[in-house]
Design a protein that fits this description.
By secondary structure, the chain is an alpha+beta fold. It has a single domain, classed as Cytidine Deaminase, domain 2 (3-Layer(aba) Sandwich). It contains three helices and seven strands. A five-stranded mixed beta sheet has the order 2-1-5-6-7. The protein is globular.
Length: 106
Amino acid sequence: MTLDPEDSKIITLARSARARNGSLEGAAVRDETGRTYAATNVALESLTLSAVQVAVAMAVASGAQSLEAAALVTAEQAASADDQAVVNELGAKALFVAAPDGTLRG
């Protein structure tokens, strides 16, 4: 599968966030204006959020009305139903899931 350069960029951003923080997951989203937001999962005793949820929350808190695409980098084989739902709610055309080495899954 050949990706658009902008889609490759959000996978790279997600990989970088994951590596920088040593997190289980990294995610990045691109909003309707082309702005990107990268995040990692949050695993606190009182708060647990996936990387996709954090990236989407950052985008929405910054005024994004919709998403063009999202990327998740994880050792898991697929995105969770919750991650898929939040991306779908904001109209993203794609949720790319990649292994830690950047290899696309599914």
